[in-house]
């Protein structure tokens, strides 16, 4: 297994429309912002942490890690966040996680990394049973030029971009509950 260092990126650049247009990463669960839960789980798994957010930069900065917005504006979706992340990351491997999945696996990065290496893939993405979790991915930083070209040609859909890459899907069937995400007020109250 390679010992390449890994940058971890919290994707918090969405508009939270299903929750009424809130900045979901700052919404509190058990008395703390969801971003805090996610960062705490991810920190021991990576060599640096970065935060991608398009609003409330000062509040995200309080977590103590660099904060940056999408370079491609207009809330173009998570690929715009990944694009910005790949331009900012210092390490050769980059893992992304969403801001609304506070229970992410503690061995997420180790398992994505093992599969990426074993398959010699460009990108490893989590799945549970037949459900893909496309924003939980580990990729090589050098896919940036490929992603930039995809975005410049008007591409926005994460699945469409993945279909042009050498990817490996990594099975987390044993931890399905760790991927539950919070999209609505009802989802939030179910966890509270
Ligand atoms: N950087 C960036 N991240 C995004 C964007 N849209 C969604 N995301 C992130 O992608 C992940 C999954 O997105 P969703 O669950 O759809 O979150 P959302 O878009 O804020 O919420 P909805 O508006 O209800 O769809 C979350 O971590 C979001 O922060 C975007 O335009 N830019
Ligand atoms: Mg969305």
From TrEMBL:
Binding sites annotated in the UniProt record for Mg(2+): 100
Keyword Magnesium attributed: yes
Role summary: Transfers a GMP moiety from GTP to Mo-molybdopterin (Mo-MPT) cofactor (Moco or molybdenum cofactor) to form Mo-molybdopterin guanine dinucleotide (Mo-MGD) cofactor.
Domain MobA-like NTP transferase: 8-160
Pfam families associated with the record: NTP_transf_3 (PF12804)
Quaternary context: Monomer.
Protein name: Molybdenum cofactor guanylyltransferase
Lineage: Bacteria, Pseudomonadati, Pseudomonadota, Betaproteobacteria, Rhodocyclales
Gene that encodes the chain: mobA
